[in-house]
Design brief:
By secondary structure, the protein is mainly α. The chain has one domain. Helices cover 54% and strands 5% of the residues. It is built from 16 helices and six strands. The chain has a four-stranded antiparallel beta sheet with strand order 3-4-5-6, with no helix packed on it. Strand 3 and strand 4 form a beta hairpin. It is globular and about 60 Å long. It binds zinc ion (ZN) (2 copies). The site of one zinc ion has 6 residues, from loops. The site of one zinc ion has 6 residues, from helix 11 and helix 14.
Length: 359
């Protein structure tokens, strides 16, 4: 097995090569958020006040959905403190940016900054990691899912990307609410209740049909866009005992203009090295990582990553393998035998301690 290093180990080596400015907040990122906000409000008004043909309204849905996703990417950045430093301002702006995705800043910072970043791809402690075979064999309710044919499961898991962010966010709320101090809990409640109350009351203002175009369809589109990244960030990588971003994260590549409108969210390995750095500087970080550890670094076009995701099951076996519990077919993970250009399975016994992956 490869020697693993923590993200701070990599960060220490890369930091020396970066300019001081790279560690300063970049408030100018907010102009992008303002643009998305204006586009969203204008589209809402147009749908609400005028009576367009449903196909025209559907075009607005796409525009709003893309804006919701863009605001979510900026919200992620804001709540890492890379846009403004003052906590109250950071949380207020983060709340606005995450308003469409109905996630509150306090919950997000707990779930994402404190749990996902600190325990990335840890079997038990990363709330975003996919389960192991051992874990799902205890979840009786889910077992029938794995009896469905592989392609049917792949189809449904891709279709579920349209709701996964919102659903997972609600799960995180129920999981973590008790961990907040009693004094803070009402704020966490308010931060999730306020967006939902606003969006739901809009039904009575706009009418159901217009609301579907203005909010519901855009929410599904935004979920799909953010999940297209989130699902490829780590799900092809192994679970690891040490939080090594070069082993447990994947950077996807997208056309330059997509990086512009998505605030460089594609640079996920870089983000795990320096979560407190503005993504504006991630191309520079990438250059240094590729110079220092080219054999450890994983990157691939987004389309290829999604295809590999489609072709592999989402259950971990012995941390480094992905297994289809239905047939016992096994696939490697990135860095451990998975070739995204040619995804191949092997049939191996899933009895623990019986495979090479145990090493
Ligand atoms: Zn991540
Ligand atoms: Zn992050």
């Amino acid at each position: 097995m490869k020697e693993l290093h923590s993200f701070s180990w990599y960060a220490k080596h890369v930091k020396k090569h970066l300019p001081k400015d790279a560690f300063k907040p970049v408030p100018a990122r907010l102009f992008g958020g303002l643009a998305y906000l204006l586009i969203t409000v204008t589209s809402f008004l147009l749908i609400g006040l005028l009576n367009f043909h449903p196909l025209i309204n559907l075009l607005f849905s796409v525009v709003i959905g893309c804006s919701f996703a863009g605001m979510g990417f900026l919200g992620h950045e804001i709540l890492h403190g890379t846009v403004v430093r003052k906590p109250w301002l950071r949380d207020t702006l983060g709340a606005i940016a995450f308003f469409p995705l109905t996630t509150g800043p306090k919950l997000w910072r707990k779930w994402h900054n404190m749990e996902h970043h600190v325990h990335t791809q840890h079997e038990e402690n990363d709330p975003d990691a996919w389960p192991t075979l051992e874990k799902i064999s205890k979840m009786k309710a889910f077992r029938w899912v794995y009896r469905l044919p592989f392609s049917v499961r792949a189809f449904f898991s891709f279709a579920s990307l349209t709701v996964q962010f919102t659903a997972h966010s609600m799960k995180m709320f129920t999981m973590y609410i008790k961990e907040f101090k009693p004094k803070t809990q009402p704020k966490v409640w308010l931060q999730i209740a306020l967006p939902w109350a606003t969006w739901i009351s809009l039904i009575f203002v706009m009418g159901l049909e217009k609301w579907i175009f203005a909010f519901l369809i855009p929410l599904l589109i935004a979920n799909f866009i953010v999940m297209a990244y989130i699902s490829t960030n780590h799900r092809l990588n192994p679970l690891v005992p040490v939080n090594d971003p070069l082993a447990n994260s994947l950077t996807v590549t997208v056309p330059k203009w997509v990086d512009v409108i998505h605030f460089n969210f594609s640079y996920h390995t870089e983000h795990h090295l320096f979560p407190g750095m503005s993504p504006k500087y991630y191309p520079l970080v990438k250059k240094h990582i590729k110079e220092m550890w080219p054999e450890r670094y994983h990157e691939m076009p987004m389309g290829k990553a999604l295809k590999a995701l489609w072709n592999t099951p989402r259950v971990y076996f012995e941390n480094y393998e992905l297994v289809d519990p239905n047939h016992g077919t096994m696939y490697g993970s990135l860095g451990y035998g998975l070739d995204p250009d040619n995804v191949k399975s092997k049939t191996v016994s899933t009895t623990p301690k019986n495979t090479k992956a145990q090493e």
